[in-house]
Write a structure and sequence with these properties.
Largest sheet: 5 strands, parallel
Strand content: 5-15%
Number of helices: 11
Radius of gyration: 19 Å
Length: about 300
């Protein structure tokens, strides 16, 4: 097993071995994180910079906690009060921070490819925390880990992604990771929210949730991005609820023991009913916990790789 990269920019180009290495490391860190108050010294003396150009609660806080549990110094940049508002470019901002001896940047940006741009221009390691509609690799990894932890396998599991597939970076990262390990992925949503060429990724497309949900092992419910409704990509919220909300009644068509996931934040009463969100089948809070373990693993592996390169 190995993970020798300078950056984590996405899951599309990661090998099975690289994903397996991260998951194994996450298992070790979960034990440390959940069963003790001890810190790892893997990032002692290192500086991690959170550079978020989009709102975030879960991902930003998760990375902060993960970094601190690894003994890193953490700096979070509020872009609204930074030199960005004075016209400074993203690369120049990052280079300035790198000159202050920042070791790892965690970047979220509205534009796809932004983390890749930074990776080309900086010696520091870059972690993609979400770039436009492209990827969200650590969310994909924590979803993978949660499924594997509960189901003990990935191969041949039937996994359904529900909702706004078109704009979802989470969906893409899930698909690229899970299909590498033999999962059978289905997507379902309004036709206007399903990418036209998504079958090229090896997934099965449905437009009817009641058909798509039959016999699935895992349902990952994606947030309906209400801001997209301004573009009239589906007729109304009421219609979406009628056709695509995951409810207890609809779950009767899935396999016994079906697992319910949601990357958050949830729109209760829209894409998921409260009855389902709070049910024993839901592992939504466990996803959050696993996110810290996965992010600790990624940070630790990147820091170790930086140390190797300096030798």
């Amino acid at each position: 097993m190995s993970f020798n990269r300078k950056d984590l920019l996405g899951l599309e180009n990661l090998s099975k071995d690289e994903i397996a290495t991260i998951i194994k490391k996450a298992e070790e860190f979960k034990d440390l994180f959940t069963n003790s108050s001890n810190k790892s010294l893997d990032l002692a003396g290192k500086t991690v910079v959170n550079l978020f150009y989009e709102p975030s609660t879960r991902t930003r806080t998760s990375f902060e906690i993960a970094s601190k549990r690894l003994s890193a110094d953490v700096v979070s940049i509020a872009t609204a009060t930074s030199s960005v508002v004075k016209g400074e470019s993203l690369v120049d901002t990052a280079k300035t921070l790198q000159a202050m001896k920042a070791d790892i940047f965690i970047i979220r940006h509205t534009l796809a490819g932004t983390p890749h741009l930074l990776a080309k221009n900086l010696q520091a390691s870059i972690i993609n925390a979400g770039d436009g509609f492209h990827e969200h690799p650590t969310q994909g990894l924590l979803d993978f880990y949660t499924i594997f932890e509960k189901k003990k396998r990935i191969k041949d599991l039937k996994i359904l992604l529900v909702g706004d597939i078109l704009h979802s970076r989470v969906a893409k990262s899930n698909i690229w990771a899970l299909t590498k390990f033999g999962a059978k992925i289905r997507v379902v949503g309004p036709p206007t929210l399903i990418p036209s060429k998504i079958t090229e990724l090896g997934v099965e497309v449905f437009y009817d949730l009641d058909r798509a949900i039959k016999d699935v092992d895992v349902i990952n419910i994606l947030r309906i991005q209400m801001e997209r409704q301004q573009a009239n990509l589906f007729p109304s919220v009421h219609e979406y609820v009628e056709l695509y909300q995951v409810t207890k009644k609809r779950l009767e068509k899935a396999k016994s023991g079906v697992m319910i996931m949601h990357p958050g934040p949830m729109n209760r009463g829209i894409e998921i009913s409260s009855e389902v969100a709070d049910s024993p089948s839901a592992v939504i809070n466990e996803q959050v916990t696993n996110g810290i373990a996965v992010r600790m693993a990624v940070l630790s592996l990147l820091a170790a790789n930086r140390a190797k390169r300096r030798k």
